[in-house]
Amino acid sequence: MMSFNDTEFYSAAEVAQKLRINHQVLLRKLQSGEIKGYKLGRDWRITDAHIWEWLEKHSNRNPKPSEKEKVIRNYFVDGQLKTIPSKLKRKQMVFECILKSFKPDKVYDEKTINKVIEQFHPDYCTIRREMVDLGMMTRDGGNYRVNPEYKAIDETK
Question: How many CB atoms lie within 10 A of CB 28?
Fold first, then answer.
């Protein structure tokens, strides 16, 4: 736990000057919670830790997430697929994430495929069928394998 004596507080005006941003812009960020701080009456107090936390999160050196990363983040919560996307491109992105759970050179029986997919979503039948329909996997009788000819989505297009 941090001691009060070890903490240095800055006013909003000091932080705005340090960061070379408009004071009103900083106040809006504080009021919205984008930047953490403590409001005392009409004034704000911000710690070094709060400033660094915001800078790390919003720095240009942190690359913007790709479309695929955004889709994965929106559809998966704690490793669980919330819902199966209806749009084809998003569906492919989500299923490609599930496809990584299978070894490319291994043959799987249907029961094993179902167990793996069920770890992500309870409707393993639909996902299994659509992965075959999309060409991600091949089916021969009751045996499945990752399709070596499947080309993952090219995000540059």
Answer: 12
Tokens of 69: 């990363």
* Token digits of residue 76: 């998966």
Distance between CA 99 and CA 137 in Å, rounded?
Answer: 8
The token duo for 120 is 């992500």
How far is C-alpha 83 from the chain's CA centre? 15
Indicate whether 86 and 128 sit together in one domain: yes
Taken in order 79, 67, 57, 27, the sign of the CA dihedral is negative
Structural domain ending residue among the three candidates 58, 81, 104: 58
End-to-end CA separation in angstroms for the chain: 49
Tell me the whole-structure pTM to 2 decimals.
0.60
Two tokens, residue 30? 């504080």
Mean pLDDT by 10 residues, the chain (157 residues): 69 93 93 91 92 83 79 91 95 95 95 96 97 96 94 71
Enclosing H/E stretch for 76 = strand 76-77
Residues 129 and 85 in one domain: yes
Q: Is residue 153 part of a domain?
A: no
